[in-house]
Each structure stands twice: as C-alpha cells, then as structure tokens.
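Hi support team,

I submitted a single chain yesterday and got back a structure, but I'm not sure I'm reading the token output correctly. Could someone confirm the output below corresponds to the sequence I sent? I've pasted both exactly as they appear in my results page.

Thanks,
R.
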Amino acid sequence: MIMNRRNALKFTGSIAVSIATGPTVISLLQACKNEIGNNWKPEFLTDEEKRFVSTLADMILPRTDTPGALDVKADMFIDKVIAHVFDEEGQKSMRDSISKFNADCKANFGDAFVNLSDKDRAKVLRQEEEKRGLFNQSVWGTAVGFQEPVGFYRSLKSMVLWAYFSSEKVGKQVLNYDPVPGVYKGCIPVSEVGNKWSL
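Hi R., thanks for writing in. Yes, this is the structure output for that exact sequence:
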C-alpha cells in the first residue's frame, strides 16, 4: 500500500531508535549524498534490480509536499547496505526475492513490477500489506517477543523507511530538528536562562 505521509511520520520514533548510527552507516549515508540523480551506478544491484528498488521506494514514499524516498536517495542507500552489510547468503536471498516478486507480478498482472501501471502497482502493494506479517513492537530498537519472519516486501519497505528517516534532508526539513549538543551562546543575560536545566 502507498504509505500515507502522516502515517509514515508516526513510524519515526521507532525507526529512529532502531537505527544503527555507527561509522559504517554514516559513511554509507555520506556516500549517497555524493551520487548524482538517477545516473548512479549500483554496487550490488543489477540495472533491472535497481529500477525495481527505485520504483518500489517511490511507490511507498512518493514526493508530496515533503521529499519522497528518491529525493533522499533511499534506493542508493539500500544498494550500498546490501553491498557492504549483507553477507553472501543475504545478498543471494535479496536477489532471489526480487526475482520471485517480479515473477509473481508477471503471473498475476502480466508484467514485472516496474512495467505495471501505478494502479496495478498499488494493487500489488495492497496485497503484500495484507498477506505479510508485521514487525513486533520494539523497546530501544529490540523487538519484544519472538519475531516471526515478515517476508521480503516488508523487510525492503523497512529499509526504505530507514533510509528516508536517516537522511539529512528529512531530519532537517520534515522532522523537528534539535541539534545535539545544541547551539553555543557564550554571552546572554541571566534573565534569559530561566530555570536550571535537568540533564
């Protein structure tokens, strides 16, 4: 299902908590910033798989009055995560899952996902939303209870959301932005300080 932007923003808290902000992820985000538009060359995905991931990301979070998934290069980010973070088995599983997803689209709608109309793509995503499992609630990024497999579609969708909410553009232009450790003001009147801060 195409995600309603308001509903997408509700995921921000849980997504933000679960994001790994280590050097590897930060370097991947930085690498995406340096790529140019749709002319980027994938590190892992084939050109056909790249089109699939880009099309799916755009269907999940299209551009509206706020940036869409492609505006923040979510597709590039996903390609880099698969190339640098996934092991060989995970990479093969991703490739096989994309192939199976397209095979199902051809069987049910007559063509690969990227070649379908927006209307048929939306039908595909609605079907996927209805038949796949959900992620458990999480506390500080750790799932509560045993996590049943959620399937390829929902896993890839979570990567789109991860890329989206990790981006600098969304962090500054869409979400409330409060830089840490904050702005240094070296000389202000005591009257403007107010109460002492609880840290």
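A quick pointer for reading it: Confidence is low (pLDDT under 50) at residues 1-23. Let us know if anything else looks off.

Best,
Support desk
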